[in-house]
Amino acid sequence: MDCTVRWIADAGMVMQAETGSGHIVTMDGAPEGGGRNLAPRPMEMLLVGAGGCTAYDVVLILKRGRQAVTGCDVQIKAERAETDPKVFTKLNMHFVVSGRGLSEAVVARAVALSHEKYCSATAMLGRTAEITTSIELRDTTAA
């Protein structure tokens, strides 16, 4: 896995990354750091990656378990250290999982498996941050 990050010099603190799979991602800094707030911050991208990684796992685990999952949102709230390096110190990942007749125990097990076994992103972030999870189920049976 690889990527190239390039500073776009005439755009303040805008960085453009090209992933090994050929996708382009733009990042920017906060105005007080020389950025112009044109794109997500690099640290926000870490949260995006962690949320995507764990949501992917949860959906895949539920589908493989023949659960009727129709949606999965992960709402992440993060706290960072006050001094440099300002690593994440606390993360709460709130999973809103939609589907027909989903069992809270089955969804909780999928979330646990993601964090204990499969999600590389949360495994790395868990080295500096306390990670907590919560689950909300939305039954789409009547819909």
Automatic annotation (TrEMBL):
- Could you tell me the superkingdom of the organism this chain comes from? Bacteria
Classification via Pfam families: OsmC
PANTHER family to which the protein is assigned, alphabetical: PROTEIN YHFA
Write down what this protein is called. OsmC family protein
